[in-house]
Amino acid sequence: MKAVPITIARGDGIGPEIMAATLRILKAADAKLITEEIEIGEKAYLAGNTSGISAEDWKSLRRTRVLLKGPITTPQGGGYKSLNVTIRKTLGLFANVRPCVSYHPFVITKHPAMNVVVIRENEEDTYAGIEHQQTDDVVQCLKLISRPGCERICRYAFEYAVANNRRKVTCLTKDNIMKLTDGLFHKVFNEIAAEYPTIENEHLIVDIGTARLATTPEKFEVIVTPNLYGDIISDVVAEMTGSVGMAGSANIGSNFAMFEAIHGSAPTIAGQGIANPSGLLHSAVMMLVHIGQTECAALIHNAWLRTIEDGVHTTEISSEAHTTMRVGTEVFATAIIERLGQVPQTLPVVTYEAARATFHVEVPKRAPAEKKLVGVDVFIHQPNIAPEELAHKLERVSGDGLQIKLITNRGVKVWPGGFPETFCTDHWRCRFRKTSTNGYAVTHDHILRLLRRINEEGLDFIKTENLCTLNGEPAFSLGQGE
Ligand code: NAD
Q: Which of 244, 251, 313, 315 to mutate to test the pocket of ligand 1 (most atoms within 8 A of CB)?
């Protein structure tokens, strides 16, 4: 078998220790790899690269297209951007795959029968990093969800289920509240689920879904969910197996892939030689499967399972009842190497089929929808004003095709017909709609002229959102009573 070039980054904190152990196991298992090393994380940040990676190191990533990465420490403050988010978004790593498995009875867990894979959308949602302070009182974070993004991640989840003999995919969203953003994710999930009749599908609202996951994880198999929920849920699920130190993850894109443990750089135990290398090792196993070295992946995975069964445990997973040897990082790695070629006796033996290892998901191109402008939401910064007084000013600027119809404050209708008890900030969403249903089309010029009149009225407009219909359907959420 031809050796495959990969890039490795040891990272910060416990990163160098767990990477050394992982590389030693990969070598002993005769993984066919040519490694290029890059330096990312704290040192790169402090050397002046605010993204945590130098231009030269990007070249290595673009050459090998595969990164095995240790955890990194993001310095607090100072405009440092999260390197993980930067790498995921720059390289288009849209799927974050996190298998979380219980190893009962060898590792203590409240959930002995758990074997869940969390597939988290990795590029969109509130992680777009578009935030603004709009007024003295109000800051906002834009939650961006795209149809191609939903199509790719939902299709990936079903393809993953097929390839890995999973029976069910569960979608978690909050579309009872976020009807457009999470609503799109749910809608696309349903569309794609219909193409996989052999895989059971379900949707749960993320709050009750997470509660059920925390109490009965054995009822779940594959979970697909937007970025933020997936971030939180996958840590919870990993910890439920007994330790966050055991789970690995794959960040998959069309042309690149990055493999890393779920946990962080654990600075409080760094340098002590006690960190569990299992999370990074499981990531390396996922990497071997990704590059087609499935036999080597199974060899390492089975030796690891046997080591756990034999009671050779790092401190954080050790217990009176099940540990025969409490060991540090290096001895744990040596124990795995000694067991290469052995398989577990109680836990299921792992096999990986080369033909099922990788799959591609395509996103179809769509014709643009027919778009019609029907109004505009103008956001206004105005302290110390009653809704009626603001409405009075906005009625004065209405006309010329656009009429004030609704004012909300933090999403609550305050005019017409608000309650005096409603607490109001200095941030007002003012909805202008087309004055009559026929006779003219709203244009950008109508909106520009309206903004000029609002400015002349002495009101501080801070942003606008056009109100459109797409193929005749409203492309905006309706206010109360609209
Ligand atoms: P953490 O995951 O580093 O640690 C959480 C807890 O788990 C700690 O008690 C730690 O000792 C323990 N732990 C984690 N990994 C372990 C292992 N392999 N073996 C034994 N115990 C382990 O989370 P944190 O403390 O919130 O974050 C520390 C730093 O890591 C922060 O700078 C954070 O930004 C960074 N971080 C990086 C990544 C990444 O690079 N992918 C992910 C999460 C956090």
A: 244
What pTM, to 2 d.p., does this model score?
A: 0.92
Task: Specify the long-range contacts of residues 328-334, CB closer than 8 Å, at least 24 apart.
Answer: 328/272, 328/273, 328/274, 329/17, 329/18, 329/20, 329/21, 329/273, 329/274, 329/275, 329/276, 329/277, 330/20, 330/21, 330/273, 332/21, 332/276, 332/277, 332/307, 333/21, 333/22, 333/24, 333/25, 333/277
* Residue at token pair 């050397």: 47
Would the CB of 235 count as within 6 Å of ligand 1? no
- Of 68, 120, 263, the one to substitute when testing ligand 1's pocket (max ligand atoms within 8 A of C-beta) is 263
DSSP codes of every residue in 311-326:
TEEEGGG--TTT-SEE
Helices (H) and strands (E) in the chain, counts: 13, 20
Structural tokens at position 96 = 């974050």
- For 24-150, strand residue ranges (E) read 33-38, 66-69, 95-101, 115-121, 131-133, 139-141
Residue with tokens 């799109």: 184
Q: Measuring from atom 41 of ligand 1, which residue has the nearest CA?
A: 71
Domains of the chain: 1-91+247-355 (3.40.718.10), 110-240 (3.40.718.10), 371-474 (3.30.70.1570)
pLDDT given at position 437: 67
Nearest residue by C-alpha to atom 30 in ligand 1: 264
pLDDT digits (tens, 9 = 90+) for 282-331: 999 999 999 999 999 999 999 999 999 999 999 999 999 889 999 999 99
Both structure tokens of 255: 């042309």
Is the distance from CB of 133 to CB of 204 less than 8 angstroms? no
Atom of ligand 1 nearest to the CA of 266: 3
Q: pLDDT per residue over 105-121, tens digit each?
A: 999 999 999 999 999 99
Residue 280 Cβ < 6 Å to ligand 1: no
Q: How far is the CA of 369 from the centre of ligand 1 (A)?
A: 45
Give distance in angstroms: CA of 452 to centre of ligand 1.
Answer: 52
Q: If you take atom 16 of ligand 1, which residue's CA is the nearest one?
A: 245
pLDDT tens string 190-208: 999 999 999 999 999 999 9
Ligand 1 centroid – CA 326 distance (Å): 21
Q: In what order do the strands lie in the sheet with 115-121?
A: 33-38, 4-9, 66-69, 257-261, 248-252, 95-101, 115-121, 222-225, 168-173, 200-205
